[in-house]
Each structure stands twice: as structure tokens, then as C-alpha cells.
Amino acid sequence: MKILVCFDGSEQSYKALKTAKEMALAYEAEEVTLIHVYPEKEASVWQAVNENKAKAPKALSTHERLQVEKFIAIKNMMNQADKEFDRTKVKVSKRIIKGNPVQKITEIAEKEDFNIIVIGSRGLGGLKKFMLGSVSNGVLHEAKVNVLVVK
Description:
CATH architecture: 3-Layer(aba) Sandwich
Radius of gyration: 16 Å
Number of helices: 5
Number of strands: 5
CATH superfamily: HUPs
């Protein structure tokens, strides 16, 4: 069994991670992949963070500083998240990629033969008035593999 876990650092994505770990152990999964997809418009900020070339905080606008902080936090959270599997025999990989989140998640799940996508019902973005986040909803409707939406 191969499990794709959508992760953005939100409380819901941590719940999805916990559920994926339980599934991986119960079904002796061969692989769990954590994925975070960021929009194209944030690519330059992510590249700067990834290459440790982000400008000094004083040289950044408030928006840029928040973006840099968000990406650093997500990178750190993904590193911490995969530690959840340290005492297991489950292979864990992490991917942070740019693109349309719904499109990339469903594309990777199908092309790489994942058995299931595990995703939180809401992520960091979006308005709380929506019962299901836009990415969760999109993945649920577009995926050709099973999707487990965790509340």
C-alpha cells in the first residue's frame, strides 16, 4: 500500500498525518509520501528559502516576510512530521512542489500508483464558513484513486 498525505502544517493536516500513520502500520504500507504544493506565484519566495538566500527580514515587505516565515515553518514541520515514522519500518518521503495543488496531488497519486490520498478537511487557507476546503474538495472530486478526508 502506498499512501499520499497532503500536508500544509495546519491542524487538519496533522490529523491526516496521524491517520495515515495508523493506516500505514495497520496495513503494513510500503510507502508514505508527504506532499505540499505551493502556488506558482510563490515560487520565487520558496526558491529563496530553499536555497537559504532569503533577504534579511528588514529588507522584506510584511507580505514577503510572512511568506518566508510560512515556507520555513512548512519545511520544518515536514521534517518533524516524518519523525512520526522513526520507530516504524515505513518508508517516508517528502515533496514540496509548485503548481496547482489539486492538479499536482491528483496527478502524482495516479501516475505513481498511490492507493489512497489522505487529506485534511481544511488547510491553512480558505474561509472557515466552507465545510470542506477548496483543495480538499477539488482532490475529492478529481482524484481517480481513493481519498480519505480527515476531520
